[in-house]
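Narrative of accomplishments. A recurring question from our advisory board has been how the design workflow behaves on a single, concrete structure rather than in aggregate. To address it, we present the structure tokens for one chain from the evaluation set, followed by the sequence designed for it. No filtering or post-editing was applied between the two.
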């Protein structure tokens, strides 16, 4: 076993050194753009956008992929505690939440999880393109000097398992009496999500945990009050999306202002930040849809 690990480590170092021999400004810029496709915040915003276009249940499962990926990757990083490539030896160009931990690659796991979950709904051409994106994101993490090859491979493997599990959960819920339509009928799902959010908080992903908590709270609350998001034309849907993101931008702009106000206890400051970030998710799944329902156009 020790010999196998030594071989993997040797190959990881060799592969990373080989890839980084091709460093160039334009390729670095391209890699930085590609790696964003594995950022959980991007997919959280995509899930919220899907919600605003009247596909609340699909948005719910899209959000689950980001949540479960964050938990699995965070737990494995802390359990295995493999250091990232040494910046004194390699060119570490990008940064990540877990600045000192490498295995597995969170970006690779996340994008692979979405590929595994969504490929059932894609034709062969889109499925192939999505797979290419998965591989490019993984390669970008190596190229930017923040992961080894084995980190990326493991991330993709775990990501595929997470995506398939989320798809299985969706099918299981669909064919049982547990449907995320009313709060009482969703106790098992809510329990899973609550446990996941608590786990995510312990993994020091407080900002993500806050956004997830706000979204899920708003989702179940909107179902309890039977708050539906109507489908709109492409033009009206884009207007709604722009307004919705403007609301998120305002909340985020308030963050540095509110956090700059001195408080007698540092714990109150952390709670204040958590609540404000939670408001981002709650705005996406409840407050903004509620406003849209109040000001929707009357039918002709």
């Amino acid at each position: 076993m020790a010999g196998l690990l030594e071989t993997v480590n040797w190959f990881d170092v060799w592969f990373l050194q080989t890839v980084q021999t091709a460093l160039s400004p334009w390729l670095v810029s391209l890699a930085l753009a590609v790696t964003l496709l594995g950022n959980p915040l991007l997919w959280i915003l995509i899930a919220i956008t899907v919600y605003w276009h009247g596909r609340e249940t699909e948005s719910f499962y899209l959000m689950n992929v980001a949540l479960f990926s964050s938990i699995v990757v965070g737990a494995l990083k802390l359990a295995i505690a493999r250091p990232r490539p040494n910046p004194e030896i390699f060119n570490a160009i990008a940064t990540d939440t877990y600045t000192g931990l490498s295995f597995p690659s969170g970006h690779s796991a996340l994008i692979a999880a979405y590929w595994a979950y969504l490929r059932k709904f894609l034709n062969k051409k889109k499925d192939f393109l999505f797979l290419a994106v998965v591989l490019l994101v993984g390669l970008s993490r190596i190229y930017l000097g923040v992961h080894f090859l084995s980190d990326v491979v493991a991330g993709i493997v775990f990501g595929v398992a997470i995506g398939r599990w989320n798809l299985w959960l969706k099918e299981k819920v669909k064919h049982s009496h547990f449907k995320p339509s009313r709060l009482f009928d969703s106790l098992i799902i809510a329990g899973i999500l609550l446990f996941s959010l608590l786990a995510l908080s312990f993994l020091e992903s407080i900002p993500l945990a806050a956004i997830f908590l706000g979204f899920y709270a708003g989702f179940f609350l909107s179902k309890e009050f039977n708050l539906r998001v109507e489908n709109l034309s492409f033009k009206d849907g884009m207007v709604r999306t722009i307004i919705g993101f403007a609301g998120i931008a305002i909340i985020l702009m308030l963050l540095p202002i509110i956090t700059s106000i001195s408080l007698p206890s540092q714990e109150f400051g952390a709670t204040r930040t958590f609540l404000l970030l939670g408001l981002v998710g709650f705005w996406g799944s409840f407050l903004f849809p509620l406003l849209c329902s109040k000001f929707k156009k009357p039918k002709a």
